[in-house]
Each structure stands twice: as C-alpha cells, then as structure tokens.
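Board notes (copied after class):
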Amino acid sequence: MDKEEEAAIVEMMAMTDAELELVPFTIVKWQCQGKGCTNGTKVRDYGIAPIYFHPRKSIRWFHIDDYIWNCSKHNKFVKRLQKSFSYEAICEKIFDPDKIKIQPLK
C-alpha cells in the first residue's frame, strides 16, 4: 500500500456519518465465532478490507483480525463462564478460529 492509499484511508476514517453515507459501500455479515452459530451483525465494507465499519458500536472502525464478535447468546454464555474459567480456555472450547468472519449477505 502506497502513501496515497494510506492517506485516503486515514481521511475516510475521519469522516462523519453523513459524509460516509455518500461513499459507496457493501453491507456484509460479521459472523459470530461460536462453533456452529449462524448469527451475525451487519457491517459496512468500504473496500479497505480487512478494515470494516460498524455504525452502532463504540469501536466503529475495526481490523477483522483484532476482534471476535459474539452474538448475544454466546456473549452472555462467555460472561457467565468467565467467573470460573480463563478467557483463553473459553475461546478454545467455544469459538472456531477457522470460521470465516465476514460473509456476503444472502
């Protein structure tokens, strides 16, 4: 990636919501990483993968390799298990590290 592309990405990440609405994007599904789970949330792909935009989260721009998304069912389950087990042990048993994180909407 050259400096011009990097500058464009930084500029896009600094845009307001109203400005981002004018930039073309594709809506994709960020899958829950729970084994066998098909739940997900919609995120925007502005063509700068692996960086995506979630309009409702506090972390609006995120690198897909830095975060695991859990559906509400798995999130509650993980929070209960964290009282007794380490997060690493829970991830090993519940989450599928090979699962594709981003799927096109059907």
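Comment from the instructor: DSSP finds four helices and five strands in the chain. Strands lie at 26-31, 40-45, 51-53, 61-63, 102-104.
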